[in-house]
Amino acid sequence: MAATREKKATITTASSSSATTNGGAFTTVKETVTLEKEIKKSKFIAVAGSISIEQSAHSFLNQVKDPRATHNCWAYKVGDQYRSSDDGEPSGTAGKPIQSAIDFSGLDRVMVVVIRHFGGIKLGAGGLVRAYGGVASECLRNAPTCLIKSKVPMGVEVPFDLLGVLYHQLQSF
């Protein structure tokens, strides 16, 4: 008996990951954006940037924080992970409002740092919440965004005579 060998083609391509409910796609900021605003003589500077993992959030914070500032408050979101810091402001008056601004924006893999230079007038808890949340929201609204579609490498081995069918199917994705 002679053994027959079937011709096979191997195709390596990229396919969207279905790791999340939206097919692995998310929207983030395209570039680092800065917004400066003065509120009751205090200068608030919001800096928003794209991050990929928690370690890049710490790196981003170290790049943009101002050691001369009174406070460097921040929040970030990477997938289901959220973190925030009030950096010496009363609890819940800075980090949480920044985090809420990120949630409201619908962006992912983003970090916002709000730097405050105290101007001599106390804002009170409500004023701080409005100031930090407002500056963060405005910064994110002004930021150019982009849709990122996650890709994963994929290999397929098919009989040679089905190669045309496979190519046709791949075109629909």
Structure explained in plain terms:
The protein has 173 residues and is α+β, with helices and mostly antiparallel strands. It contains 4 helices and 9 strands, in the order E-E-E-E-H-E-E-H-E-H-E-E-H. The strands form 3 sheets. The protein has a 5-stranded antiparallel beta sheet with strand order 3-4-7-5-6, with helices on both faces. The protein is elongated, with a radius of gyration of 24 Å. It starts with 7 loop residues before the first strand and ends with a helix. The N terminus is likely disordered.
Task: Offer a few descriptive terms.
173 residues, 4 helices, 29% helix, disordered N terminus
Provide a concise account of the structure shown.
The chain has 173 residues and is an alpha+beta fold. The protein is built from four helices and nine strands, in the order ββββαββαβαββα.
Number of strands: 9
- Main sheet: strand order: 3-4-7-5-6
Low-confidence stretches: 1-21
**Rg result:** 24 Å
Return the average pLDDT rounded to an integer: 83
The helicity comes to 25-40%
Shape category? elongated
- Major sheet size, sense and barrel closure: 5 strands, antiparallel
Distance between the termini: 42 Å
Based on secondary structure, the structural category is: alpha+beta
Helix-strand pattern: EEEEHEEHEHEEH
Provide the fold topology.
Blueprint: E1 8-16, E2 25-29, E3 33-39, E4 42-50, H1 54-64, E5 71-78, E6 81-85, H2 95-105, E7 110-117, H3 124-142, E8 145-149, E9 151-159, H4 163-171
Antiparallel strand pairs: 1-9, 2-8, 3-4, 4-7, 5-6, 5-7
Helix pairs in contact: 2-3
